[in-house]
Structure formats: structure tokens, C-alpha cells
Amino acid sequence: MAPPTLPAPLRGVSKQLNRAITQALGLTEAVTLRRTDPTSVDAPLTAGPVLVIGSGPDADAVAHQLHDWHLDVRRNLQAPTQQRWGAVVVALTDLEAPGEEAERVLALGGVLRELARSARVVTLSRAVADGDAPAVAAARGGVSGLVRSLGKELRQGATANGIELADGVGVTDAAAIGTLRFLLSARSAFVDGQLLPVTGRGITPEDWTRPLAGTVVVVTGAARGIGAETVRVLARDGAHVLGVDVPAAGEALAAVMNEVGGVALQLDITAPDAGERLLERVARGPFNGRLDVLVHNAGILRDKLLANMKPEHWESVVAVNLAAQVAITTTLAEAYPGLVQVSLASTSGIAGNRGQTNYGFSKAGVIGATQAWAPVLAAGGGRANAVAPGFIETEMTASIPTMQREISRRVSSLGQGGKPVDVAEAVAFLASPQAGGINGAVLRVCGQNLVGR
Ligand code: NAD
Question: Interface pTM (ipTM) of the complex?
């Protein structure tokens, strides 16, 4: 039966009430975000001209790079005629004491009313390092609070993020540029209010539109939701994909893999021989023994308050979401020491969430394992990173009670839930050489909504 609809005049009142509540609570109204198409890369990089704030050599070098990408780059604060700023990049890499940031930050403040829908603000700064003088550390550390707070102030789908460079990594090193490109683009639509740490130099992809050309990628949980969209985005970016899911999802898995010309493997990742089965499958055609990237995406929810938790609720979640990941990577990394791994964590593993002690344990465990794998895989030329989605509209989250779902959507800085493609784009970015300088990190894709905080 269709739900009853309000008469037109009452609908108007309801809309006004909704807006009043949104404003009173300081919540953001949802706008349509500028997103990518998982099957095409035609979209322009930014939604309008790019303003670079800062006057030192790093600001000059970044402006030069943006010119090379054929962007309309401006160095003065005059608003572009008839166009709004698609992005503002603020160079803060030279900060040595609090106060030195003020002029540039206030200049940024002066242009915020001229941002386009889904515009980007990206800061470039240095990470606090061991041995930094207190004044240097104070100025560098401050940037994170600026970015996180600004993310909560921006409207109309605009986001604020930063790149935190380790000492020794230059603003035009491949990894810094690759990260800047991701943050400027529509691929980062639901990434907001965070700093991405770049600690290594990375490699510039030969073709920015197909950064994974020729690579072989395994994706678990590929039959639906985030996994299926990840398969599509990875294939768009040039990867040959081996998609894995449980036999019960075999038909859906086959449909997704056929769509992209990939290969389907029906496999329960908790099977004791799951790692060997994967090795055996990549050894044969069309992969012929090649494996570059492993995406640990399969996951389940069995939400219960701990007081009501049955052993099977706890054990199944930890087995699928965590133990299987560790076991599979242990087997695969022995054969492929330079593996690039991307694991699906969750903001519930960072902030905690009522009813999710089992899930929170598993996802915080994924972050712990990622940090442990990072130096091990780096020794072989690989990397390990995690993506922590917030509230994403999938069949998994459709099982959450309606009111809790609506709250999860509304309390983000973007006023809405994310889409599977938002997470898929973050996974594909971390899988690509573009992110070659990022290792052991957690990239949140949550619209600045940490569930449970
Ligand atoms: P989903 O339930 O829509 O899809 C998960 C897929 O994993 C399914 O196809 C399922 O069959 C498969 N799977 C489950 N157990 C498996 C097993 N033992 N072996 C092989 N495959 C198995 O979930 P989703 O929403 O797309 O989530 C994907 C990942 O992202 C999960 O790890 C989830 O925890 C994480 N995540 C999702 C959200 C969200 O809001 N949707 C938020 C945070 C994290």
C-alpha cells in the first residue's frame, strides 16, 4: 500500500518546519553532490576556476601543476567573472609559528561566499614531525582544526580537506600531486573534513584516466553494494578484476563481473583454504599469475546490544570482517610481497556505535591490521590502507531502523548519506599509483559524519 501523502498546503508547512529544524540544529541541507560516473571519466576536474592562495615557491609550483592540467588558475582574489570558484588551494607548507597562517586563512574566508556547488577547499601543509620546535608544531598542528571546522561551515556540497606532507616530500612529488588531484575532483564527493598524510613520493600514472591499466585486482564481496560499484570503478580505471562472493550470491556476482569483462569466483572468504583458492585462480588465465591489488570489502552486520549478544552474532562478524582478511593477506602476501591492499573499515570502528560492539571491534581491528601490514608490504614495494565509510546507502544499511537511518544521514556536514560510488572511488584512488605515498592510513568517506560521536 502506498504511504499516505499530505495535502499540498500541509506539504509546504512540513517543508518549512523541516528547514526550521535543520537551521535550529545547525544541520546542513542536502544538495545533489557533483559525483563521478563509475563507467566514464569525462567530467572536468573541478567545477570552475581554481584559486591558489599563498605566494612562496610551493604555491608557485602547485599553480604551475594545475596549469599543466589545463585548469583556469588564478593567483589574485578577484572573483572570476560570471563564474564561481571550483576550488581554492591554500599553500601553508612554510608555517613556522602560529600567526603566520592568518593572512592566507582570512583571504580564504573572503572568497567562501563565491564558491561553486560542490567546490573544494584543499590545504597543503606539513605534518608535525618528531623534533619540531613547539612553535612549528603548533602552527602545523593547527591546520587540522582549521580544516575540520571549515568542513562543518561550508554549504552547497562544498568540502574542506587537506594534504599533510611528511618532511622530505615536496608539493610536486607524484604522491602529493596525485592526492591533490583526487581531492579536487568529483571522485572525492563524500570525503570531508580530514587531512590525508602523504609520507612517500609515489609514481605519476602514465594515463590519469586509466591509472590501473594492466593491473589485476581481487575484490571480495563483489556481488552488490559497495563491492559491485568498486568493481565497476576499478574496471573503468583499467584493472582486470577477479570478483569474489559467497555461492548464494553467485548469480548477482556473475552479472556484475560480466558487465566489466571480469572473472567471478564463488568463495566464502571464511573458508580455511580461501587464500589458496585465490592464489590458484589468479595463477590461471586471464590473469596468468599476476596480482597487484587486494580489496577486502566483504562484510556483515549483526547489530545487537552487548547485553543481548549471542555467540554467533559476535563470532560471525569477527570471522568475516576481520579474521578472514588477516588470513587471506597472510597467504597472498607470501606469494606477492609487493601487494597493495585496501581494506574496508568503518567510522563505527573509529567513533564507536551503540549496538555495534561486534562490528566496531571488527572494524577497529581492520585499522590495527592495516597499520601492521603497512611496513611489511612496503618492504616488498606494496602498501596497506583502509577506507572507513560512514553512512552509505546500500542494502546493508537499509536494514537499520528508519529513524536511526535518517539521523545518520542528517548529522553529516553534507546533510546526506553517501553512495557506493563515493566509497568505490576512494578505494580505487588508494589502489592506484596516484596514492603511492600513502601507507598505513585511514581515508574516511563519511561526509564528516562520525557515527556514534
Ligand atoms: P552489502 O551487505 O551490501 O555487501 C556485502 C557483500 O559481501 C555481499 O555481496 C555479501 O554476500 C558479501 N559477503 C558477506 N559475507 C561474505 C563471505 N563470508 N564471503 C564472501 N563474501 C561475503 O554491504 P556494503 O554496504 O556494500 O558494505 C561493503 C563493506 O563496506 C563492508 O565491509 C561494510 O562493513 C563496509 N561498510 C559499509 C558501510 C555502509 O554504510 N554501507 C559503512 C561502513 C562500512
Answer: 0.99
